């Protein structure tokens, strides 16, 4: 028995349905053939040359990444450009590239639910619902079982996500009970978090204008980095896929890619947290 790529895509559809992807996204099979046999799977966050090399070393012909290898429409394939070089590398090596992106973020049990669960949030719901029952959508908001001081919440985030940094905008509240979050670039949901009464909003890639808005609105806005807030979903996807493959795929090896964040903190510029981050109040 052998597992075809189109069957693998059906399995992934059951895990993260395509209709939950944002309109701007590009998911599914991006390089390859639906009838190709799947001989090994490598799952990672970013489609990089290093990740494709890992796939070849592990004898995997199928690569599933969170971020799509083709995101914006291509007008040319010129091989001195990074994206074209990556696609050429995949094609010459016979690798198939599949993306599970915002559909995996938004689905019930996906990235944002995983983050919420890891932080101990209860009674979670989407910040921006996409389904009629309100169970699935972008971001999450929920409540801690017990209120935490700002420093305690920061320690929880650091222990759970091990982020390379924690940036903050706005002043922290006296205590934190209602928490909103969105893995990856989530500035667009800051106002939704505020309107739903979140005392803190945890995300990544916070824009300057959104940080200023949070200051004015009185929302404590935390940026823990794109990589740190998304990479936990890779191991979870590997487990779900292993559990969901049909008998034809039972013996197919599934590997988790070895990846490092592309951004590194060279200098914090200070030896201690400023008072407005540490939770001290005037």
Question: Could you characterize what this model shows?
Answer:
The chain is of the alpha/beta class and 282 residues long. It has two domains: 5-104 and 231-256, Udp-n-acetylmuramoylalanyl-d-glutamate--2,6- Diaminopimelate Ligase, Chain: A, domain 1 (3-Layer(aba) Sandwich); 108-229, NIF3 (NGG1p interacting factor 3)-like (Udp-n-acetylmuramoylalanyl-d-glutamate--2,6- Diaminopimelate Ligase, Chain: A, domain 1, 3-Layer(aba) Sandwich), CATH 3.40.1390. It has eleven helices and 13 strands. The protein has helices at residues 5-15, 49-57, 82-92, 102-106, 111-118, 150-161, 190-195, 208-217, 226-230, 232-244, 275-278, and strands at 28-31, 41-44, 62-65, 96-99, 121-125, 128-129, 137-138, 140-148, 167-169, 176-185, 200-204, 220-223, 254-256. The strands form three sheets. A six-stranded mixed beta sheet has the order 5-8-10-11-12-9. A five-stranded mixed beta sheet has the order 1-4-3-2-13, sandwiched between helices. It is globular. 39% of the residues are buried. Residues 278-282 have low confidence and may be disordered.
Which descriptors would you attach to this protein?
six-stranded mixed beta sheet; globular; Udp-n-acetylmuramoylalanyl-d-glutamate--2,6- Diaminopimelate Ligase, Chain: A, domain 1; 282 residues; 2 domains; alpha/beta; 21% strand; disordered C terminus; five-stranded mixed beta sheet; 13 strands
């Amino acid at each position: 028995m052998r597992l075809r790529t189109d069957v693998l895509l059906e399995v992934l559809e059951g895990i993260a349905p395509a209709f939950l992807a944002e309109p701007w996204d590009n998911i599914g099979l991006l390089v390859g053939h639906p009838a190709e046999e799947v001989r090994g799977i490598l799952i990672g966050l970013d489609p990089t040359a290093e990740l494709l090399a890992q796939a070849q070393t592990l004898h995997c012909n199928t690569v599933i990444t969170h971020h799509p290898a083709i995101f914006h429409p291509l007008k040319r394939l010129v091989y001195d450009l990074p994206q074209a070089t990556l696609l050429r590398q995949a094609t010459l090596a016979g690798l198939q590239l599949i993306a599970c992106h915002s559909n995996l973020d938004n689905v019930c049990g996906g990235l944002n639910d995983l983050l919420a669960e890891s932080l101990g949030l209860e009674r979670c719901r989407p910040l921006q619902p996409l389904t009629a029952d309100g169970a699935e959508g972008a971001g999450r908001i929920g409540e801690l079982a017990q209120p935490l001081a700002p420093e305690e919440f920061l320690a929880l985030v650091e222990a759970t996500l091990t982020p390379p940094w924690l940036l903050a905008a706005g002043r922290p509240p006296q205590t934190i009970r209602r928490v909103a979050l969105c893995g990856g670039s989530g500035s667009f949901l800051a106002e939704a978090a505020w309107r739903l009464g979140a005392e803190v909003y945890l995300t990544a890639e916070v824009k300057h204008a959104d940080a200023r808005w949070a200051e004015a609105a009185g929302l404590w806005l935390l940026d823990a980095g794109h990589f740190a807030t998304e990479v936990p979903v890779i191991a979870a996807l590997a487990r779900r896929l292993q559990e969901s493959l049909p008998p034809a795929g039972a013996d197919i090896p599934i590997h988790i890619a070895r990846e490092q964040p592309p951004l590194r903190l060279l200098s914090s510029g200070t030896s201690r947290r400023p008072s407005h981050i540490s939770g001290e109040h005037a």
